[in-house]
Amino acid sequence: MITIKKVEGRCDLRTFIRFNYHLYKGNPYAVPDFLEDMQDTFNRKKNAAFEFCEAELFLAYKDKKVVGRVAAIINHKANKTWQTKNVRFGWIDFIEDVEVLKALLDTVEQWGRERGMNKIVGPLGFTDMDPEGMLIDGFDQLSTMSTIYNYPYYSRLIEQLGYEKEIDWVERKVMVPTEEHQADMDKYFRVAELSMRRYNLHMRHFKNVKEILAADGGQYVQKVFNVVNKAYANLYGYSEMNERQIQQYATTYLQFLDMRLLAIVENEENEPVAMGVGIGSLSYALQKAHGKLFPFGWWHLLKAIYFKPAPVIDLLLVGVLPEYQNKGVNAPLFAQIIRVAQKMGFVWAETHPQLEDNEKSQGQWAHLDCTIHKRRRCYQKEL
Prior knowledge:
37% of the residues lie in helices and 26% in strands. By secondary structure, the chain is an alpha+beta fold. Strands 1, 2, 3, 4, 5, 6, 7, 8, 9, 10, 11, 12, 13 and 14 form a 14-stranded mixed sheet that branches. α4 links the parallel β4 (86-94) and β5.
């Protein structure tokens, strides 16, 4: 018999978070979440998304053993923006048993109905900054710190329950240009130079985290994230980041960031109009840390950042203000990151998940040696 229990208290929350680690323990492609980060994510006082989201966490038990987990989420800001009544399911994991999955999803469906929702979608997090999309292709590829990895049976079982495709994201493996992996470098650099001159643009560089945090009286990071807000505004399910969220993400990611992999384009008023950011992959370090920062997880991260970096760049975000899109303004971003990647000895880059129907985003890789090596899906079902 399968029973569902609402997560209540620290012990339940720890069980919820660590179920993913235990389910994928020993899997060479899965990258565990940090226990400490996930505790903050589900903390209503620490996660700014709770200002416009409500959520409950649930655990599935069978024979007194945990066999699944799921988060039920309503993002009221996104629903208002897109005029929907969606309940989201996220952080879903389960053993290969369709009855376990059914019990979890039935719980989210009912929770959503009770709150006036008429459709269930997922896997999605609180916002687009959380991992989203069920992996449906690329199970033999290493995951990243900001994406979901799951077993192949997930999609088979959820489709068995009548869930259908809502939208897909794709991820590319992009080779850093070398003699072996050629790219039309001249085009990137030529377009970059032309766009910078035509629109009176320039690159902004920072030496360290302290400098960017202090820039423009401490407001510069906010301005950069506002570029992302405007660039992503029309993308599926996006809800604009507020000031607290921006501070939260800055705190999370800036500590790991090498400023050489941050590319920012400014206009003649020194305002950011485009940004691209990458980070040396922490996937292997996170695996070695076993999903915990303490007592020794921090050491594996430290080594990966400063002493023995992986040969892979994770491209976290690329954003261009709408009024500068289709004008070649993304070219300076790639021109800078490519040069830095070559000097730092990176072999290839992992793109962030991009919507398959986002032609502007998909087209920017046309002149590089790359291949789509992962695909993930958001599922939906009418309630």
